[in-house]
Amino acid sequence: MKVAILSGSVYGTAEEVARHAERLLKAAGFEAWHKAHMGLDELKAFAPDAFLTVTSTTGMGELPDNLLPLYHSIRDQLPDWRGRPGAVLALGDSSYDLFCGGGEQVRELYAELGIREVVEMLRVDSSETVTPEVDAEPWIAGLIQALRGA
Predict the structure, then answer these.
(1) Domain count, the chain
(2) Minimal CA–CA distance to 56: which of 107, 122, 9?
(3) Residues in domain Flavodoxin-like (predicted)?
(4) CB under 8 Å to 42, separation ≥6 — which residues?
């Protein structure tokens, strides 16, 4: 199964979590692919069977600037990815009102595209962890199990 890993990061933390998830998915036998700043044409060329988006939140609950071009391209073109499995791992700071708002935006996009959320979105609170990639490992293990059953 080919898993595309999309990421949006302001300070690089979400990128590192995405790279860690890519390593874990590959170790589990999936053809996982992550590229920072990927374009929609590249994503379509990969022809993913499943999606994982790892994103932080910035400003007033928004997606990071580096994910916006891909996000808008997907919203404009609405590729036919109905029924494919997907999951969102969101990083944020619970001291802000719109905690993990970027992740919520991706969940809404998944719903528009008909992508099935196979595990509930993980919210990682930066005010409570210094090792989000390690903290996400049990959730990623659950995602691997869900994808094997998809």
Answers:
(1) 1
(2) 9
(3) 3-144
(4) 35
DSSP summary character for residue 31: E
Q: CA 122, CA 130: separation in Å to the nearest integer?
A: 16
Rg from Cα positions in the chain = 14
Residues 6+ apart with CB under 8 A from 135: 124, 129
Q: Which residue has the tokens 């609405």?
A: 78
**Global pTM?**
0.95
Q: Are 147 and 1 in contact (CB under 8 A)?
A: yes
Give the chain's mean pLDDT: 95
Residues 136, 125, 67, 106: is their CA dihedral positive or negative? positive
Q: Tell me which DSSP letter residue 121 carries.
A: P
pLDDT per position as a tens digit, 74-102: 999 999 999 999 999 999 998 888 899 99
Q: Which amino acid is at 108?
A: E
Give the 3-state secondary structure of residue 85: strand
- Containing domain of residue 82, as a range? 2-149
